[in-house]
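Exercise 7b. Backbone tokens:
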């Protein structure tokens, strides 16, 4: 059986190009330093986070930073490219938080994952108590969206402990939660003044769900590289993209200005996230190391032997790209 596999070019016709914030270097570096100061990882894992260097290229001239800046910070800078520095820092810090939680729960038992979730939720202001009536809706949105993400991560840990494999419908439902699309999209809205009836309109909610599905489907392509999985990724993504574009071009509701302009930016934010996530899968070096640009162009890579979790510390790992 060949260990070569082909990655479908799911965004070949996606109309939203790669973008990055002009403040990306300064903001993601500050956020990375904040994460480093928390000592969330062991020295070995932190070293992997800090040491991976990229050379400049014509296509990606900014890739001269460490993983500490390239991992969550790069993702935020590519998915919130129009935020000012303060809002971009919020995005970077949020991505760092999710990244740390994801790294720990990937190794955790169901009980340990629940402890992590309880601690994360307790760090918010009384997260299990509904926000006061009349308060800005953002507090309640954050409380609900983060809670669902943490709850689903705990279920994922429990499934892993029990060796439980979900059917495709259950898997899709679970991935929509664990990918973190809802809280990530909430940050797209920073600085906007959209009414609830616009954000919660069924058409907008469907666009959000379709974008979320395209994001986790792309991640399946990077994480599960068997040929049948690749075929499924390509075909399913085509259906999601076609549905998204049909709604985007014909069915976005109108509320009058200035809501319509902000709503258009909000929906574009979903699409920018789809592109940014896919681009980050390559540019971060997380999956393909220094061969990422080559693999992104050829779409061909080599499946590495499966590693044992017990051989690694919690946190990012070096990719042995000599075998890719």
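Sequence design result:
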């Amino acid at each position: 059986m060949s260990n070569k596999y082909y990655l479908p070019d799911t965004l070949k016709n996606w109309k939203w190009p790669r973008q990055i914030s002009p403040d990306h270097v300064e903001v993601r570096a500050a956020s990375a330093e904040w994460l480093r100061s928390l000592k969330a990882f062991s020295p070995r894992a932190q070293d992997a986070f800090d040491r991976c260097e990229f050379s400049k290229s014509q296509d990606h001239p900014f890739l001269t930073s460490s993983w500490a800046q390239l991992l969550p910070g790069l993702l935020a800078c590519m998915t919130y490219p129009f935020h000012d520095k303060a809002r971009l820092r919020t995005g970077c810090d949020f991505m760092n938080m999710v990244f740390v939680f994801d790294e720990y729960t990937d190794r955790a038992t169901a009980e340990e994952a629940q402890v992590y979730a309880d601690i994360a939720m307790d760090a918010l202001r009384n997260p299990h108590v509904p926000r006061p009536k009349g308060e800005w809706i953002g507090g309640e949105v954050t409380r609900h969206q983060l809670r669902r993400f943490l709850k689903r991560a705990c279920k994922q840990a429990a499934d892993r402990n029990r060796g439980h494999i979900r059917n495709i419908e259950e898997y899709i439902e679970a991935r929509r939660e664990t990918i973190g699309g809802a809280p990530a999209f909430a940050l797209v809205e920073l600085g906007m003044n959209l009414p609830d009836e616009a954000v919660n309109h069924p058409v907008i909610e469907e666009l959000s769900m379709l974008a979320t599905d395209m994001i986790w489907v792309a991640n399946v392509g990077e994480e599960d590289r068997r040929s049948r999985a690749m075929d499924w990724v390509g075909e399913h993504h085509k259906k999601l993209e076609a549905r998204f574009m049909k709604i985007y071009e014909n069915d976005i509701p109108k509320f009058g200005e200035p809501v319509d302009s902000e709503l258009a930016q909000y929906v574009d934010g979903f699409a920018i996230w789809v592109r940014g996530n896919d681009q980050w899968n390559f540019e971060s070096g997380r999956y393909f190391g220094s061969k990422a640009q080559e693999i992104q162009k050829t779409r061909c890579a080599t499946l590495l032997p499966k590693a044992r979790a017990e051989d690694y510390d919690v946190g990012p790992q070096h990719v042995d790209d000599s075998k890719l």
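Instructor comment: The two ends are 16 Å apart (CA to CA). Residues 137-162 form the longest helix (26 residues).
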